[in-house]
Amino acid sequence: MLQGWSDTLVECDLAFRMPDIFPSEICSWFVLTSTSTKYNVEESMRAVEYYVYLWRFGDFIEEVLQCSRILPDESCSRKHVWSYLKKYIYNLWNVLDWLSHLTLVVALFLRHFLQSEGQQYARNMFALSLLFIYLRFYETFLIYKIPGTTVIMVKEMLKDLYGFISFVLFVVLGVGMYYHANLWPDHQAMWGGSWSNFRLWTILSHPYWQIFGEIDLELLTGSNQDNCSNNRSIWEAVPSMERCPQQDWTVPVVAGLYMMFTNLLLVNIVIVQFRLKNLN
Question: I need a surface site. Which of 20, 98, 113, 165 has the fewest CB within 10 A?
């Protein structure tokens, strides 16, 4: 009987996605207005919160029933089970479903167990779960000819994008290391403070945004001395305090070569790959 229910849910999955628009709007209302625990005293917000939890729990049960097809029976070989499991795992829509459930569970844990210090991270997780829910709605476009074709094309392009990201990651990391070593030489406090203050994000952020045209030339030339400190004792003791960059003429030169490489070569390579794939 469980197998029959799971088959029915899989076949009617697209039909059930359209009525989910209204619950997703309720979830949006909750995430935008009342993720803080101080709103729990309001009866209207509490009702909205419980409605969201009930809806997500029902969606979770649907996923569990769909996963029950993986369970072997007398007429199902181990090879068939593994084939279905692999197909289920590599399905983008299933991944989005489980990511939305996982982030919601993390958000609930942060909200109710860490109290005030975890509220910001809980809000981040609630919003991330909502983002996955909205991305999941793209599956409904598959029942239409033109939008469905577009969704399929985007999914195929993402496969090429994964390869591009893995390739460009080493370039971004290398250039970021060069920037940091010359703009902030002999920097010892690499992992001080909370994880959001780790210098790794500084190393990655500047070359990453330069791919999209954010040059930040004042920083690269060392002329931006606002909201920072040159006093070593201050920026080492206070991780949130930025250290002022030093001037090094080689940094703008490397930045110019890097941006020429990424904007004129790498990005155009990705565009050519997308076009060739569409032609094939």
Answer: 113
